[in-house]
Design a protein that fits this description.
Layout lengths: L25 H11 L7 E5 L5 H8 L4 E6 L2 H14 L5 E5 L2 H7 L5 E6 L7 H10 L4 E12 L11 E9 L2 E8 L3
EC number: 2.1.1.171
GO molecular function: 16S rRNA (guanine(966)-N(2))-methyltransferase activity
Pfam families: Cons_hypoth95
Length: about 180
Amino acid sequence: MRIIAGEMRGRQLKAVEGLHTRPTSDKVKGAIFSVLGDKVLNSRVLDLFAGTGNLAIEALSRGSSEVVLVEKNYDAYQVIRKNLEQVGVSQKSKLLLMDAFKFIHRYPDEVFNLIFLDPPYRQELIPKVLQSLKEYSYLSADGVIIAETAKDEKLTDDLYPFEIRKTAEYGDTKIWYLQRMDV
């Protein structure tokens, strides 16, 4: 696993041993950031279910100003900490060892331009997270939520005030891009 573009391009990242995490592939990561384009520049990024920190670190490499990474698995948290230190971005990062839902309810005044949601597949976590995010103003007016699911998963719950703006499939992965309806 490596950083694929930006100032840290080519730098290798550590992965978590075992099956607790499923890092986003370079192909999918490249496609996500291609869609986001300049939205990454100077953005404030939230990476819930951060895993290895792969997506947040890629965002920093491409010009994001700050990232907040939330991970509840201790082994994954340690890998993220090492990855942040290894590529020298600890000062632009806030890493929290906690459950994603606790973070949402504990920090209700946070606002982000980009929110990455890459939880374990087939556990219906993304609809639950979106429901929790609705209670607060986490997403900036022109911000984007990028959700990663298994290809056969659906986001069927009432998403208001968010709406699906784009989807894309890559192998067994589906990426959902959501924004506020009033944008």
